[in-house]
């Protein structure tokens, strides 16, 4: 989908004819509909995948940081950590980039629609479709963006420090 949005943005910079604009508006409308239906179908599984990956990252990171004999189990702990990290980054970065390109294409289409010479009925139809929100979300709770990626790692670090210090305090006599 990211490549399709890139193609739309390239075409918008090249063509100025009304027919080409109608085609681009139709393609954009189809893409926005696809994003909305994709989000409706996969926002809850994306939420679960993100949550489970964060649990996996926390648990393996905690065990790596606070295990006393790490040499014996290091390979068995690092592999799940790398798996959860890669899956988390893959999900978050791809959804974030898709949302950024969607927002950019929506903004350009809105500007283009203001300056085009379409009939009033067609303009109203396209403005209605372009005005609808089409973002990828986590179970309709939070829209994927860059700050979510940074916040998720900050949350893991904070909880790790808290539980690590609590564990150390409980073990000392």
Automatic annotation (TrEMBL):
**Keywords per UniProt:** Membrane, Transmembrane, Transmembrane helix
Q: Transmembrane stretches, by residue range?
A: 42-62, 74-97, 148-167
The answer, when asked if Transmembrane helix is one of the entry's keywords, is yes
Domain of life of the native organism: Eukaryota
What is this protein identified as? Uncharacterized protein
Question: Which species is this UniProt entry from?
Answer: Caerostris extrusa
For this protein's source organism, the top of the classification is: Eukaryota, Metazoa, Ecdysozoa, Arthropoda, Chelicerata
């Amino acid at each position: 989908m990211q490549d399709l949005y890139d193609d739309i943005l390239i075409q918008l910079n090249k063509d100025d004819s009304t027919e080409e604009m109608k085609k681009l508006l139709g393609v954009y409308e189809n893409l926005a509909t696809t994003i909305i239906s994709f989000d409706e179908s996969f926002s809850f599984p994306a939420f679960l995948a993100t949550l489970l990956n964060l649990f996996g990252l926390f648990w393996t990171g905690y065990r790596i940081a606070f295990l006393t004999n790490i040499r014996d189990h290091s390979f068995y702990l690092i592999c799940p950590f790398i798996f959860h990290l890669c899956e988390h980054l893959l999900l978050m970065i791809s959804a974030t980039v898709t949302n950024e390109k969607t927002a950019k294409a929506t903004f350009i289409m809105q500007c283009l629609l203001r300056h085009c010479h379409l009939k009033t009925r067609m303009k109203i139809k396209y403005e209605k479709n372009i005005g609808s929100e089409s973002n990828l979300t986590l179970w309709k709770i939070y829209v994927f963006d860059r700050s979510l990626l940074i916040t998720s790692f900050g949350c893991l670090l904070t909880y790790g420090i808290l539980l690590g210090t609590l564990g150390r305090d409980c073990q000392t006599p």
